[in-house]
């Protein structure tokens, strides 16, 4: 048996937590498994390689009991405790729990009262209107569940970019080291950094194609080989994600890379430009009238011969990049190295795993000049921990005294405030003005009419102490669609009132996405990037936010956390003058 990945171990441990919650066991026990699952998933080394129970217990959040289970899972793929628990409540928790609006408690009730074990059972119960008859459930609950199911089905077979990239980059790194490899590159949606990925498309040129194919199909990460021919092989990883490897002649590698990067609409238009110039472009190269090969070893060569700049892969989707490239007007897109700080994160004061000081140390390690701690405000929102209005002065003191001057990375005192149903802010102005950075966001009452939701958000933009609107669409990737609101109206008001729009870099949100960011930029909005981290490791997710920014054509000047510390402070302080 192959040793399980951290992700696989974490999934089992998290599922144990879910079942314990369904069984109404002690909260501390449930929390212990939840925390362990997160630590395991984010642990930088392969946990299955640690076979010493004492060593395992050095990982934060891992006690003796859980350490024993990890060793069992590493050796056998599962553990007795988990198997017993699963028998006690035989439902498909993984699927049901991934539905927005269903948690372990509700799943348990649906099982107890209606015998629901699977998604199919749930659909049937909804059709028969059985759920609305349960106490505490309403007709609306049923409709919401239906929407969740639709959303689940729509996204089935797609993967979050972080997960996909994790697997695909391991493959590319591995093949790069192989002595017969000439070039190996990611293509397709992964190269375009789309937020969700269908499958990985990997291209390789090799001195020995057969050896490359063998190497690919024998990689340690893969679960099974789905197909293997002379020029193409398909493999599947343990989580069901698939990767295609194509063997390409090195002389035409650029043409193949251009073709397989896409997207399709970009390719179609570029091919048309070739035709207009009396050329022909396909995956084997650029050819002239007399079918002579004139370019194809590199992408640069092809675009240059077509009289174009080379559009960065992230913006290849025929929304203006081709015209810009023809007119020498492509923007210089923002780069991850331009980022000087991270402007959204949580700590142990609420549901985070690390202290503000630990987060700042990580900030320094990432080369940042500053971070903003942005705890949730407790009023009007049920969260684990958080800061009430009256606690704000003490909260700021605590952050400012956390040896910040000795840390190379400054700490900004921020708050993430839930926008109440009527758009009022739950924190009085006298407290708001003490803070360095005020985020507002929708965390409750997602299902309102488009008009009401738009009005609700716009109301908060009138407050002079609000800096930014966090995760503006509220989507959770592959789980929850955006709430309904008038995005254009929000952008216009944001520009007028100088409210920043957040590009939330957490891979479960990536909100705004590229399309929306581009539209907001065209209206004249400015942006802030934040990882919404709940641990130091998650701070490394900034790159995903940058991918979205690039997909949205953003440049350095569009994003405030490319400013250095003093300029940022000045910028944020200007709110009083608005
Ligand atoms: P995905 O996998 O659903 O996340 O999205 P992609 O873009 O990776 O799509 P995929 O894997 O079907 O194809 C990879 C690339 O191959 C795609 O970005 C462009 C190119 N391609 C695929 N099918 C066609 C086609 O019918 N025409 C053209 N021109 N290009 C195609
Ligand atoms: Ca693909
Ligand atoms: Ca593919
Ligand atoms: Zn939030």
Describe the protein in words.
By secondary structure, the protein is an alpha/beta fold. The chain contains 24 helices and 17 strands. Strand 9 (285-287) and strand 10 (293-295) form a beta hairpin. Helix 1 packs parallel to helix 5 (80-88), helix 1 (6-22) packs across helix 7 and helix 20 runs parallel beside helix 21 (487-497). The structure holds 2'-deoxyguanosine-5'-triphosphate (DGT), calcium ion (2 copies) and zinc ion (ZN).
Task: Please describe the structure with a list of short key phrases separated by commas or semicolons.
single chain, 578 residues, alpha/beta, DNA polymerase, domain 1, Beta Polymerase, domain 2, Beta Polymerase, domain 3, seven-stranded parallel sheet, five-stranded mixed sheet, 24 helices, 17 strands, binds 2'-deoxyguanosine-5'-triphosphate, binds calcium ion, binds zinc ion
Q: In what range is the share of β-strand residues?
A: 5-15%
Tell me the name of the CATH homologous superfamily of the largest domain. Metal-dependent hydrolases
Number of separate domains: 4
Determine the N-to-C terminus distance: 63 Å
Work out the helicity level.
40-55%
What topology emerges from the helices and strands here?
Layout: H1 6-22, H2 27-42, H3 53-56, H4 64-76, H5 80-88, H6 93-97, H7 104-114, H8 119-127, H9 139-155, E1 159-160, H10 161-177, E2 181-187, H11 188-191, E3 196-197, E4 200-206, H12 209-217, E5 222-228, E6 232-237, E7 242-247, H13 253-261, H14 264-276, E8 280-282, E9 285-287, E10 293-295, H15 299-305, H16 321-326, E11 341-342, H17 356-365, E12 370-376, H18 392-400, E13 410-418, H19 429-432, E14 437-441, H20 450-461, E15 468-469, H21 487-497, E16 500-504, H22 514-523, E17 527-530, H23 542-551, H24 565-573
Parallel strand pairs: 4-7, 11-12, 12-13, 13-14, 14-15, 15-16, 16-17
Antiparallel strand pairs: 1-3, 2-4, 5-6, 6-7, 8-9, 9-10
Helix pairs in contact: 1-2, 1-5, 1-7, 13-15, 20-21, 21-22, 22-23
Bound molecules: 2'-deoxyguanosine-5'-triphosphate (DGT), calcium ion (2 copies) and zinc ion.
């Amino acid at each position: 048996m192959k040793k399980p990945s951290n992700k696989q171990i974490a999934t089992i441990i998290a599922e144990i937590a879910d079942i314990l919650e369904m069984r109404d066991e002690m909260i501390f026990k449930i929390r212990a498994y939840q925390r362990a699952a997160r630590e395991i998933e984010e642990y930088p080394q392969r946990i299955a390689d640690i076979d010493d129970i004492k060593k395992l217990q050095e990982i934060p959040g891992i006690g003796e009991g859980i350490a024993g289970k990890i060793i069992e899972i590493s050796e056998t793929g599962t553990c007795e405790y988990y198997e017993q628990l699963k028998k006690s409540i035989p439902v498909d928790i993984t699927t049901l729990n991934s539905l927005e609006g269903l948690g372990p408690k509700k799943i348990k009730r649906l099982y107890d009262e209606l015998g629901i074990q699977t998604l199919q059972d749930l659909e049937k119960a909804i059709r028969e209107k059985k759920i609305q008859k349960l106490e505490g459930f309403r007709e609306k609950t049923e409709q919401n569940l239906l929407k969740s199911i639709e959303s689940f089905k729509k996204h089935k077979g797609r993967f979050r970019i972080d997960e996909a990239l994790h697997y695909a980059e391991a493959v590319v790194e591995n093949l790069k080291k192989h002595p017969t490899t000439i070039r190996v590159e990611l293509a397709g949606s992964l190269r375009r950094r789309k937020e969700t990925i269908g499958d990985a498309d990997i291209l390789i040129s090799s001195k020995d194609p057969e050896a490359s194919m063998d190497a690919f199909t024998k990689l340690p990460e893969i679960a099974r080989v789905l197909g293997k021919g002379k020029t193409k092989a398909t493999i599947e990883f343990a989580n069901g994600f698939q990767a295609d490897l194509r063997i390409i002649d090195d002389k035409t590698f650029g043409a193949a890379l251009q073709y397989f990067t896409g997207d399709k609409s970009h390719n179609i238009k570029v091919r048309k430009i070739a035709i207009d110039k009396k050329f022909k472009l396909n995956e084997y190269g650029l050819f002239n009238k007399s079918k002579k090969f004139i370019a194809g070893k590199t992408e640069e060569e092809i675009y240059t011969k077509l009289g174009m700049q080379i559009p960065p892969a992230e913006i290849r989707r025929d929304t203006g990049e081709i015209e810009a490239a023809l007119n020498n007007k492509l923007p210089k897109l923002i780069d991850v190295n331009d980022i000087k700080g991270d402007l959204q994160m949580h700590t142990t004061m609420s549901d985070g795993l690390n202290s503000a000081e630990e987060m700042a140390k990580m900030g320094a390690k990432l080369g940042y000049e500053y971070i903003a701690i942005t705890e949730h405000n407790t009023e009007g929102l049920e969260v684990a921990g958080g800061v009430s209005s009256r606690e704000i002065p003490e909260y700021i003191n605590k952050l400012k005294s956390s040896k910040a001057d000795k840390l190379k990375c400054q700490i900004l005192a921020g708050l993430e405030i839930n926008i109440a149903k009527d758009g009022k802010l739950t924190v009085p102005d006298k407290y708001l003005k003490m803070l360095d950075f005020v985020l507002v966001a929708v965390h409750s009452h997602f299902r309102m009419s488009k008009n009401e939701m738009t009005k609700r958000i716009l109301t908060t933009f009138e407050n002079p102490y609000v800096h930014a609107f966090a995760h503006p669409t509220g989507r959770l990737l592959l789980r929850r669609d955006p709430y309904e609101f008038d995005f254009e109206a929000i952008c216009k008001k944001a520009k007028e009132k100088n409210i920043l729009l957040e590009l939330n870099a957490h891979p479960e949100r990536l909100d705004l996405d590229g399309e929306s960011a581009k539209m907001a930029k065209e209206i004249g909005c400015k942006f802030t990037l934040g990882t919404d981290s709940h641990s130091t490791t998650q701070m490394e997710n900034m790159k995903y936010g940058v991918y979205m920014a690039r997909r949205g054509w953003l440049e350095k000047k569009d994003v405030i956390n490319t400013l250095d510390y003093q300029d940022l402070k000045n910028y944020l302080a200007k709110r009083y003058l608005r």
